[in-house]
Amino acid sequence: MSATSSFYLARAAQCGLEAEAADLVNVRERCLRAKAAWQAMADRVLKSETDRQQQMADKAALQERSLG
Asked: Whole-prediction pTM value?
């Protein structure tokens, strides 16, 4: 089962909150790195979802043209 973009975005947001609450610089930096990683994963999934929707729309348009 693949994770959804909302899962990745939620984790990124949580890491951001943890970074804001961190007292130690190294902990804050670690949280910010984790936030960036989660955001990058979310971005990849969102792009994949968008590309998939575009491919489906293109395929439907092609089929409609061939029928019409």
From this structure: 0.79
